[in-house]
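Board notes, transcribed. Complex of a protein with inosinic acid.
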Amino acid sequence: MPSYAIIGAQWGDEGKGKITDYLAEKADVVVRFQGGDNAGHTIYANGHKFALHLLPSGSIRPHTLNILGNGMVINPVSLSLEIKTLKGVGLTPTIAISNRAHVILPHHIEKDKENEKTQNIGTTLKGIGPAYMDKVGRTGLRMGAFVNEALFEAYLRNDQTHDLTEEKIKALLDTYAPFQKELAPMVQDTSYLLSEAFKKDQFILFEGAQGTLLDIDHGTYPYVTSSATSAAGIPQGAGVSPKQIQKVLGVVKAYTTRVGEGTLVSEMNEELAHQIREKGNEYGTTTGRPRRIGYLDLVALKHAHRVNQFDALILTLFDVLSGIHPLKLVIAYDYHGTRLDTFPAEPEILAECTPIFETLEGFDEDLSTLSDYNQLPQAAKLYLKAIEKHTGIPVGMISVGKHREQTLRMTNIL
Ligand code: IMP
């Protein structure tokens, strides 16, 4: 049985939640391997809209095991709330939480807010960066210790870094007692669970959060998140071997969006951006912030491909481009008169790049009702062909709406 990685090929918000839920129809296990509740994965199913932040997007399917891997940073309060919300609509997903995943506590959120005053990354203020700082600084708290009353108290009492007074410790112990109890039965060695799933030849999906351009190493540093969002984050963040990832699927929006700070070379004029933002509902799932909008940036996409080696692209929100004339693809950057075909590492250089476009004809047809690739208008087919030609990656699937049935499969690669 296959194991697929579902990776964001841009700055997050590519629609990975919908795609993971769609592919989870046949999956046995869905695994998150990095990030925390900074993510926002929106799924429309069973007549409901679900906004998942920590739970893997297999949680809407009754048959999947949903793993929160060791590479994640978990806010127990948010997780509990998410589980309750699903219970409220009659869903009781099977959940396993890694005992090695790190815990986000209130002081991480406070520190995130404080840092933002001077750093201006435009974070989600969920405490992600400070929790990962504690992890690599070897001062963090892991889920296995969190759900053990004695270990949690010992951790708080031995803490030298967060200025915890006796009063604060007492408050933390009281606040978290119900969450320890609730989550304890789910906390286990999820790397072991995955090794058993592989032994049974089960179908496993690794669900990325954020996107490759927000990767701590390969993204637009420092305007990135604090985890490895690319496929390379999977073995480390799930406790599997790199050899166990069979196919890497890149989820890419038909255009580009970005929230938070940092340059967006392909950014459109606000009139066009507004049109796309409203049609594509381009507002953050986690923070509600309006997303910045750009043309599809193939320089960034090729960079993501180099890092991830995508077996196929899954193009999302294609229906949103109907009525946009002309369509444009960013095929290279101009940096003070020099053509750049690769994505620069320095934000200062990126900030001075301007796009070199390939211009294509647009289309007016409504794609949202289509059920087959062959029904696409010719201009839409040529847009896909141009992406394939420039990147060398086959487009394997297209999403033309938020519902499961608005998904067109193009090749038998999946
Ligand atoms: P953090 O992950 O909250 O530290 O935020 C760091 C950067 O990543 C900011 O620019 C955020 O807007 C961005 N970011 C974090 N999570 C997501 C996401 O799920 N989608 C899009 N951008 C995100």
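The two ends are 12 Å apart (CA to CA). The CA atoms of residues 69 and 137 lie 20 Å apart.
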